[in-house]
Amino acid sequence: NDKTFNQGDSTYIYKKYYSSDFKESRKKLMPFLWSEIASKGQIYGNRDLGNKVDVSNPYWFSYPGYSEIMTGNVDLLVNSNSYKANPNVNVLEFLNQQSKIKGKTAAFGAWDAFDRILNEKRSNFPVISAFDPVGGNKPTAVQNLLNEMRDN
């Protein structure tokens, strides 16, 4: 275990997020996903419920898998976690090009490769990933607080 993410006593975490009912646990862990997205859309991939979802690319690791999910296609050239900016148009980029929602797209991820997977430069929408600062050149007080929290 990485000590950075393991702060000792896990009792609090179990009390806050664990339930013997897996449906209740997942609602506690990701309330927005299960209250809003699941109730208004579809979620696939729970093998225990027969929702077998696999990627089609032969690599079975992060960047190629996320590329496939976000573009809807397998690109055999996308074959490394250190791959350059993705040459394929992704669903968020497509949505950002639609006149009614242009400029209203953003992506947030916990891995700095999302800047490349979603091709932030070409896609022309912000991709906030890993340890990116938020707020640009003129961050608000809240954005400054978020940046400070990230750094400490």
UniProtKB/TrEMBL annotation:
It comes from the Bacteria. This is Phosphoglyceromutase. It comes from Flavobacterium circumlabens.
